[in-house]
Design goal:
With 168 residues, the protein is an all-alpha fold. 79% of the residues lie in helices and 0% in strands.
């Protein structure tokens, strides 16, 4: 975990585009909010492991989203219930359940549907928010943060030095 955090800090300051980091952040957020006991979660996880995104940010956001998601489950339940009981879509959802293996995605679960829809709706605003924060980080915070006494002491910790040597 410490190694991933160090990689993330290096990546925030690298020449990579802020949009790449924001994209991996948002995809990880969607996966973090989704319940982990369905085929949909595993399909999305594996699919994005083969896409070129920042894996450390992706993994960290999955973990953070998973910590936040249980407190949002009542909200996801209400949203999912509204979507699944929406009259014009009820027959479509019933027909989808007849397709082999689609039922394993558990899209008919109100929490799965609600968290998926909320994650997809939050994607664009969170993307632009994170992209703006990364630009602010790179321009103003990073130069001051890297020269601070805390960071110089952090880089003197033997474990951190060993991790840096492994990456070289």
């Amino acid at each position: 975990m410490l190694k991933k955090l160090i990689k993330l800090l290096k990546f925030l300051n690298s020449n990579s585009k802020a949009s790449q980091i924001a994209n991996s952040f948002c995809i990880g957020m969607i996966l973090g909010l989704l319940p982990k006991n369905n085929l949909l979660w595993y399909v999305v996880l594996v699919f994005f492991m083969f896409v070129r995104i920042h894996k450390a940010c992706y993994g960290i956001m999955i973990l953070l989203g998973a910590l936040i998601a249980p407190s949002l489950d009542p909200f996801f339940d209400k949203i999912g219930y509204m979507i699944l009981t929406y009259g014009p879509l009820e027959n479509t959802f019933a027909d989808l359940l007849e397709i082999p293996f689609v039922g394993f995605t558990r899209f008919n679960n109100t929490i799965v549907m609600g968290s998926l829809v909320c994650g997809l709706l939050a994607y664009i605003p969170v993307f632009f928010l994170v992209e703006g924060l990364i630009m602010l980080w790179r321009r103003y915070v990073s130069p001051v943060f890297l020269k601070s006494k805390i960071m110089t002491a952090f880089y003197k910790v033997p474990l951190v030095q060993k991790i840096q040597e492994l990456e070289k």
